[in-house]
Design goal:
Rossmann fold; 455 residues; 10-stranded mixed β-sheet; 31% helix; 14 helices; 5-stranded mixed β-sheet; alpha+beta
Length: 455
C-alpha cells in the first residue's frame, strides 16, 4: 500500500513518533472480520450453536454482548443461519456507533446515512419491535441493499427511504428521539481493509467531505426532539472531519451539548476528551470515531391510539378477505403491533399511523405483508423473516445439515416430510424461518424470493 507523503506527514503530526510507528505496522496486518448476532431471533440459549455454525469465537468488547470475531475456517455468509437472519457480518469497530446510541424500545430512531445497513439492523433490534426506525440513504441503489439486510433481520417496524436529508429535515422537525449520522468521510481508518479508499483520498481528501458532514449534522440536529440524542461517527482519523465537526455543530446549535463517552477496551478518548477514537494498532478493528450529543429540554407526550388502531384493523380485514384467510394461519397478534395499510394491491403493517407519513419515496413502508392479486393473497419474503416458528400454523422443519435447506435456498422444489394437509408452510432451519412454500402432496413448491436465491 502506497500512501502519499502529504498524508503520512499529517499522521505523524497527529499521532506522535511512537503511535505513528505502531500505525504503520498495523497497515501490514490482515484486517479482522466480525459478525453481530440478531437478538430479535437468537436467544441466550441459542448463542453457542449459532456461533459454532458461523465460525465465530471471541466477543467484541464494545458490542453490547452481540458482536464476535470470525475465524477464517468458514464462510459465514454461506451458512443457512445467515439466510435465516441470525447474524450480520460487520467490521468490529463499526459495531460501536449503534451500541453507543443506545436506542430504547418505543422510540423514534433515524439512521440518516444507513446503507448498507449494519447499524440499522443493530438499531432496529434494540427497539425490540416497539417504536420505529427510519432508515435512509440518499442513494437509491445502495438503499436496496439496506432494505434486504433489514428484511433478513426480521424488521417489522422500519421504513426505508432514499431521500435528500434536507427534505427529511423539512418533513420531520423535532420528530426523532435518537439519530445516527454515520457520515461519508475520507475513510482514513479503512485504508487497510479497503485500499481503493487511498485513491479516493488523493482525489478528494478530508476537505471534500467536511462541508457534507456539517450539512448532515445540521439537518440531523433540526430533526432531533428535545431531550433526544445524536451519535456522530466516521471511519477517518482527520480532526477536521471528527472533533472539529462536533465543535462546529455545538457552536451552531446552542441547544446541543456533548455527552462524554468513556474510553474502554483499547478505545481511547478523542482529542476533545469527550469523544472516542478507535485506533487499529490498539484494538482488533479498523479506525473509527464517535461522539454523542444531546438536545436540551423534555419531549412532549405522544397520543396513544390503541383503540383507534384496533378498530381500523378490524375494518381492514373485512375489506381484504384473501388476506384475512391467510391471516388465520398467523398466530402472532399483528393487529396489536401496527396499522394495516394497502397501496396498489400491496399490504403493509405500519408501526405508526399512516397520517404520520408525509409524501416520502419509501422503498419499504413498515412490514410488507404480501400482495393481493387475481383473488388470492401471496405472502412476502419479509413476512416470513418477521415471523417466529411458533407464530405460524404450518411449518416444514429442516436441519442446517440437511441438503434440502441448501436446495430450498437455491429456489428448488423440495420433498415435504412434515405431513399434514396441502397449503402454506413456513420453511425453517433448526427452528428459524427461511421463507414460505406451498405444500402440494409430497412436494413443497418454493416461494423463496428469487432475488435472494443462492447461486
Amino acid at each position: 500500500m502506497k500512501l502519499s507523503e502529504r498524508y503520512l506527514e499529517k499522521m505523524r503530526g497527529l499521532l506522535g513518533p511512537e503511535e505513528y510507528g505502531a500505525y504503520l505496522e498495523s497497515l501490514k496486518k490482515e484486517p479482522v472480520r466480525g459478525l453481530r448476532l440478531n437478538p430479535l431471533k437468537v436467544s441466550e440459549a441459542d448463542k453457542e450453536a449459532v456461533l459454532a455454525g458461523a465460525g465465530a469465537g471471541e466477543p467484541v468488547p464494545w458490542s453490547a454482548g452481540q458482536g464476535y470475531y470470525c475465524t477464517d475456517r468458514e464462510a459465514p455468509s454461506r451458512h443457512p443461519y445467515y439466510a435465516a437472519g441470525l447474524y450480520y457480518l460487520q467490521e468490529p469497530s463499526a459495531m460501536a456507533p449503534g451500541a453507543l446510541l443506545d436506542a430504547k424500545p418505543g422510540e423514534r430512531v433515524l439512521d440518516l446515512c444507513a446503507a448498507p445497513g449494519g447499524k440499522s439492523t443493530q438499531l432496529v433490534a434494540a427497539l425490540k419491535g416497539r417504536g420505529v426506525l427510519f432508515s435512509n440513504d440518499i442513494s437509491a441503489s445502495r438503499a436496496k441493499g439496506l432494505l434486504k439486510n433489514l428484511e433478513l433481520f426480521g424488521a417489522g417496524n422500519a421504513f426505508v427511504s432514499a431521500e435528500d436529508p434536507e427534505r427529511l429535515r423539512s418533513l420531520f422537525p423535532g420528530y426523532f428521539d435518537r439519530i445516527l449520522v454515520d457520515a461519508p468521510c475520507s475513510g482514513e481508518g479503512m485504508f487497510r481493509r479497503e485500499p481503493a479508499m487511498v485513491r479516493d483520498w488523493e482525489e478528494r481528501g478530508p476537505e471534500y467531505y467536511q462541508p457534507i458532514q456539517r450539512k448532515l449534522l445540521s439537518a440531523a440536529a433540526a430533526m432531533l426532539r428535545p431531550g433526544g440524542r445524536l451519535l456522530y461517527s466516521t471511519c477517518t482519523f482527520d480532526p477536521g472531519e471528527d472533533e472539529e465537526a462536533v465543535a462546529w455543530l455545538l457552536n451552531e446549535e446552542p441547544s446541543l451539548s456533548q455527552v462524554p463517552l468513556k474510553a474502554q477496551a483499547g478505545v481511547c478518548s478523542g482529542l476533545d476528551g469527550a469523544s472516542l477514537r478507535f485506533y487499529p494498532w490498539r484494538l482488533r478493528g479498523e479506525g473509527h470515531f464517535a461522539a454523542l450529543l444531546q438536545k436540551a429540554g423534555e419531549p412532549e407526550k405522544r397520543e396513544a391510539e390503541e383503540e383507534k388502531r384496533l378498530s381500523l384493523n378490524e375494518e381492514f380485514l373485512k375489506r381484504h378477505r384473501e388476506f384475512a384467510a391467510f391471516r388465520s394461519l398467523i398466530l402472532a397478534p399483528l393487529e396489536e403491533r401496527g396499522f394495516y395499510w394497502e397501496k396498489a394491491g400491496q399490504l403493509y403493517l405500519l408501526p405508526v399511523s399512516p397520517k404520520e407519513l408525509p409524501g416520502l419515496r419509501f422503498l419499504r413502508t413498515g412490514l410488507f405483508l404480501g400482495s393481493e392479486e387475481r383473488g388470492r393473497f401471496e405472502p412476502s419474503q419479509a413476512l416470513s423473516m418477521y415471523l417466529k416458528k411458533e407464530e405460524f400454523a404450518g411449518t416444514e422443519e429442516l436441519s442446517s445439515s440437511d441438503i434440502r435447506a441448501v436446495k430450498y435456498l437455491k429456489g428448488e422444489t423440495i420433498p415435504a416430510e412434515g405431513g399434514g394437509e396441502n397449503g402454506w408452510r413456513l420453511v425453517c432451519v433448526d427452528g428459524w424461518p427461511l421463507g414460505f412454500a406451498k405444500k402440494n402432496g409430497a412436494s413443497l413448491k418454493n416461494r423463496y424470493y428469487p432475488g435472494w436465491r443462492w447461486k
